[in-house]
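Input.
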Amino acid sequence: MTVLKTRSRMVSVRLSEDEYVALRELCSSTGSRSVSDLTRDAMRAFLRGTTQEEMLHIRMNEFCDQMNQLGRRIDELVEKFAPSEKQIEP
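Output.
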């Protein structure tokens, strides 16, 4: 992810070890790059008034788009590297 605006402000929050471990696990399960990215995304959603259900819908749409792109790329590679039917004559 490219940072379009320089980040010059910092918010500091103290967490228990259990809270931090839970955030790290959530990073892994959501595909976030870091606790900072996860927290920043959650904060933006909160400020926009986005519900968890709406965020899940957004993430699912992003995931579906990525899967469709991968599918198209696989099809392109298959066409490029698979032998044509004319070459497979018995």
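The helical segments are 17-30, 35-48, 52-81.
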